[in-house]
Every structure is written in C-alpha cells, then in structure tokens.
Amino acid sequence: MFARTSLSGFPEWLPEGRIIENAFLDHLRTTFELHGFSSLETRAVETVDELQRKGETSKEVYVISRLQELKEERSSKKERPLGLHFDLTVPFARYVVENAGSLAFPFRRYQIQKVWRGERPQDGRFREFIQADIDIVGDGALAFHHEVDLPLVMLEALNGLPIPAVTLLVNNRKVVQGFCEGIGITQVDEALRAIDKLDKIGREGVLAEMLENGISGERGEKLLELAGIRVSQNVKAAVTALGVENELLTQGLEELESLLEAANKRAPGRVVADLKIARGLDYYTGSVYETVLEGHEDLGSICSGGRYDSLASNGKRTYPGVGMSIGVSRLLSRVLTQELVTPSRSVPTCVLVAVNDEAHREDANDIAYALRSRGISTEVSPNSSKFGKQIKYADRRGIPFVWFRDENGVDTVKDIRSGVQVEADAQSWMPPASDLSPELVVKTD
Amino acid sequence: MFARTSLSGFPEWLPEGRIIENAFLDHLRTTFELHGFSSLETRAVETVDELQRKGETSKEVYVISRLQELKEERSSKKERPLGLHFDLTVPFARYVVENAGSLAFPFRRYQIQKVWRGERPQDGRFREFIQADIDIVGDGALAFHHEVDLPLVMLEALNGLPIPAVTLLVNNRKVVQGFCEGIGITQVDEALRAIDKLDKIGREGVLAEMLENGISGERGEKLLELAGIRVSQNVKAAVTALGVENELLTQGLEELESLLEAANKRAPGRVVADLKIARGLDYYTGSVYETVLEGHEDLGSICSGGRYDSLASNGKRTYPGVGMSIGVSRLLSRVLTQELVTPSRSVPTCVLVAVNDEAHREDANDIAYALRSRGISTEVSPNSSKFGKQIKYADRRGIPFVWFRDENGVDTVKDIRSGVQVEADAQSWMPPASDLSPELVVKTD
Question: Which of A173, A298, A369, B407 has the highest CB neighbour number within 10 Å of its CB?
C-alpha cells in the first residue's frame, strides 16, 4: 500500500509508489514522442471566464485569490478572477489560439499535468489528479485518418504498461445521429441521454424515458437494437442488417469500419465497436472512444476522447481535433492500493559503499564517484557503525549491493540478498542489468 | 525566443522551449537518482495554517475556494482553508512528519514541482514556477558530512547543464555567529541584516545601520573584515589572521574548511567561501549555500539552501536536514529569452514517411511502425499531396529525414538537409545517433 492521503481527495504516494508513477509516466511520454507528439505544459490557472467559456460546466472550479487581497479592503481595481484548470483541453484550446502563428498544423501534442476539481471526493475520484492527454489539431480541416491513428497510439501506450489488458470501445456520432434520422427520431440528444443509462436502468427504463421525450416505443426498440451491437469487425454488415438507410449513417459506418480494420491489424482483439456508447456524443462530432481495464470494469473508462470539429476558434479560424485523455491518478490509485505492481526496491540506489571509519569516508566517496560515473546509482553509508548495521541500512531500503574496502585496499562487493561476496573494481564492475534501476514487479496471483 | 506569457507572471513555453525544459529536468532527475535521492511529489495545496505555521511569511499565498461555494450562501460548516504551496520545503516538512513511520532515515529525496506566489511579477520573478529541491533529513540527528555531500550533488547537477559555469558560494552560520560573539556583538541578527545589504548600500551604509542598532564602529569594521573574505581554500587561516577566538567560530571554520577541501577535489575552482553571505543565516544553523551563474550575476542566486537543525518536528521528534533548491523557471526563462540554448529541431520526430496517395497510407503506416519498433520517432505524412509539399511539411518542423516507397516497393530515405537520398530498409536503417532525438545546441558567440 504505497498511497497515503492526509487530505481527502488529494492523494500522495510513498517513495515506492512514486517509483511506479514515474515509470508509468516515462512510458507514456516515450510512446507519445515515438509517434511524433510534442510535449507541452500550460500554466495551472486560466481566467474563470475561459474556464466557463462553454457555459457552466459540471466540473467544480477552484478559484484562487491572494491571501493578502482577502484580508485587505477589496480594492476597486480588481485583478481578473483566476481558477485552477479542471482538465487539459480548455487550456490547450486557449494555447492553440494564442500561439497558432508559431505552431505547425496538424499539431500533435501530449500534455501530462495535474488538474483540480472541487468535487466531493469518492473512491477513484480526486480533487487533484494527473491527466495524460494526446491531441492532433488541424487548422481549418483535419483528415479522418487521424481518428484511426490516435486511438491506436493510446492503446499502444496503455497496453505497454504493466497493467491488465485494456480494450478500446469505439462508436461514432455520425452512426448514431444518422440512424436516428433514418428511423425518424428528431430528439437525438434526449435519445442519447436515455441510451447512456442502459446499464443503470435497463431496457424498460430507457424505453420509458424515451417515451417521455416523445420517442415512440417502436423507434426506441429500433435504437436499442443498434445500441446492442458490440462487434470487433464487420460492424457495417451488422448495422446494415437492421435495414435503416441514411447518408450520414453510411458515412459513419465507413469510418467505424476502417477504424476496426486498422485496429485488427495493429492491436488484434483489443478494439470493439460498442454502439451503446453515448457519453460525449453531444460534444464529439465523429469517433468517440472509451476504454475498459480487464477485471477492473468498476473503475469506468480510464481513458476517453473523440473527434471534435471545433476544439477552438478565434472567430476567423476554427481548429478541429481528435484527442484522448488518460485518468492517470485513477489508474495509479488502483494499481497502488491493490499492489498490482510493486517496485523491486524503494530507492534508486544500487550500491551502498560501506565506511570503515570517519577518517576513511573520503575513500568511500572515491568509490562512489567511480561507480556513478558509469551510471550506477550509489550512496555512501551515512555512518561508520559496525558493518552489520550498515548492511541492515541497505537491507531496509532494498539496496541490493554493499561495497567494502579492506585495510589492504582490496575491494569486494556483496549481494546482500544471496550473501555472495566477490572481489571487484570500481572502475569496471557492473551489476546485473535487472539491478541497475528499480524494476516493476507485476502481481501474478 | 521560445517563451510566451499571455498572463503576467505565468510563463508558458513553445514546443521548442519545452524540449529544452524537459532536457534540463531529465538531467537533474538523472543526477539526483545517481546519488540515491528518491523522487517525491506532494499535493499542490496545504492548509493555510500549515503554510503560515512559522508565522506570516513574506511569500504571498494563493488561497483556493470552490466557485460554487463562493456563489452559495457560505455554509456554517466550512472546509479548512487551503492554499497553493509557495515552496517545496513546507510540504516536505509536513510529509516527513506524516510519513515518518514509512521512511528510512537519513531520508534523501528530490522534488521537482511547480509552486505559486501571489507576488507582483517582475523580470525573472513569476507567480507560477518550477523548483527542483534536494534534501537529506535525519531522525533526531544528521552528521555534518551531509553538508559537504549535498552541495556537491547540486553543483554536479547544475554544471552538467548546457549553461555558463555555476559557482557555489558558501558560508557557515557558526563562523559568523562565533565571530560576532568573539568580538562582543550580541545583536547578531541585526548585524547580519546590515551585512546582507553590503552590495546595495556599501561599507559606510552598513556601518551606519549597525551603529543604529548599537553595534560600535570598531566592531562593525571588524565584522566587515570577516565579510570581505572570499577564498576557495585556506579559509581557516584567513579568518584566524583576524585574531578573534571563539569555540563556535573554530567549529564553524573546521566545517567550512572541510567543505572547501572536498569541493576542491570534486569540483576544482567552483566552490568559494564568501563570508558576506548572510541571507538565510537567521534560519540556517550551519552551512549556507548560494550560487552565481557566470555572466548572469544579475539573475541573483539560481540555487540556494543550507543546514537547518529542525526541518520539522512533531513535538516528540525533531528532523534536522540540509537542502538546496533550484529556481528552474528563473534559470530557464533566461536560457529561453536569450536563446542560450536551442533545440536541433522543434519536434521529437526523426522521420516523416511520405504518403503516395490515400489508398497507400497503410503502406506508410507499416513503415512507420517498423521504424518506431526500433525506437525511431516517426510520423506519417498527414496528407498525400505532392512530395515537394510533404518535404516542406517536414522541413518546417525540422524533421531531418523523409522516407519514400516507390511504385516498385523500393524504399529510400532522404536527408532533407543535405539532399542525400539512399536506399534503406525499415527493418534495419538507423539515423546517426545525433539525429535520433532533438539535441540541445549551445549558443557560442
């Protein structure tokens, strides 16, 4: 259990947990850069106006104010109210508009940062948490193939982590919209909201809610047939069999089908068209993505996103995009609290150099510098107590090797796990590759 | 110029600047881990009580409040007021006390995070900025040698960056305190505050201020003699020549001398005992550290710290420590605005795979996946326009190589800087090592 929280909703990890977090973030970053995504960071704050540009959101915003300002008489000339960002999309949209002249489009960026929401904390829901986003944004236009490319990058990133298998669930706004139009449903948003509750309120509940919104039982039944489709290939055939014809539907099915085809080649069995996915369909305009973590379906989607025709706009220009966001802290919290992964040791240190007595500390420092110069993380014993105590110090932190120099100047290094001690030269000795840095060990039971 | 700010005091970098920032942070992290420091991150917020535990600080705190809460009638049952941390020391002290049972002491940690201060923004002073701290903390006691070890780690970290040479300036509270006692100055804090202004108000100003505080001109002159000492070795001899005797002074000189000796061995010429350094001497209890960046003395100290006998205490136990903190954003801002360093390209991408026509996009994807599987950052051209335009796309971002497959399936790769085009196999071709990732280029004029 490497997670602690002394303030509800604000998780902190012990050093062991932080090793796992860093390894996860390094892997995400490496994968994103391998695919040509540039790193970006935006400031933690936006103006409250910007945070509410799309109207009141359900995300609770934290506003910040200077403590002195609160104490002083409020001055008449107030600064613009600022709030902490609640996601990385709002600041990215603002950044794109501000810096459009310096960016090359289509612009690919990843952004891994903390975000804040003043929500009531619950299991897996935090007030401060890390998101890892990737987006591709065009200037005016963005070709469809990016909707195929991007989720495959995310899937590669997630399935490279030492966690249970991740499955990507996809749908397409055009399919659902076109299908609704094809069967004469005009209240598409209402229909989507009802479908979104399928798992909670069941078929009868969904039909009842649609009826309340003026959608006939017959049409509702038909839409539920669509929502029931869950296939990893031939989605076009499955939908066409329902006998509904509509141009937008046809276009959406072409898109969904080509996404599945690419996915079956790059990540066989890991991408599923699940046509009941409705979350975000009011916002997204093409593909929508969710994910499930095998055996942890209760976590909900750990990574979601989609295609939006207007990420940002400055009046003259519009920037369409496609993006996905990983809820890193939600995922990590599960990994840490259930110890799905543990680090092979709690410190970066590979070797502890023993100190014979304080007069010889400088000898130990020399050995340590020689080892470090070849990339071996090394500490010198903080004290010169009996060797047994120095070994215990290493053992407590999981440092695998202790280095000794005897009174004749002969160096030996001891693997304190096996007890094997061999002669060694600080200029050339290397630990086994698996001991060089802490490694992640996956729980296997 | 890779830095932009649309909100005063909250700097943001363009992708080029972010490449430099990431390279700097990676180097710091690698150096700290090489020396056995564990990574930690604490939440961004602390209770306002905690932030003001040592009394009102000069650092302006940002308090946060939920927007809904502000709008609603303030409820009688209020949440504890929270504020954003203004440094990494206060949260670390709180973390150590909270998690002492799970940490092994002496505990070595590094922490690289943003901090916030509601100050009036000025050149090099931000409201949001990154600090990089290392500290070693003991449980009850901490041996002096850590005061030698720690600044040498920082110096190694800083002088490994592609920036002008960094010099470490050191002083010791015991030397100044002991010297004052030895010459009969009892108003030590007042004397230190005056000495701290030496560069601003000159010798006469300092003497006048000391006189106001009841320190005689004779004693003031003597203290100025001490403050005038600036040597990189034999500090003990230089101070002893002033003929002042005091036990604490002797102890302090032993410490300072042994720090210089070690420094002259590990980082010759880069450490200077500068006995006029007084900042923080009211807080620190042993060694104090500052740094100067050659040619950028106007920036002030980019990295400071010292020894404190009580980082934290929970009543029963006291945790002494020694630590230093780099003002990363202040340093980076200078590097970026003066373009002291530029990246060899603006994107991680090494190869752009050209697309002959949309029907053959999947061929380009296959090539890209083959290259990426061997660690080569690769993008596929977002469009299938004329090759000239695709090459221009690569050129605009500084992507050095464009990959082509002709109608016979023959692959070639073109270095668009030299124009040289050679046959290549996606399963085995490697770029020169210097082109694999963006490299930092140091301004040489």
Answer: A173
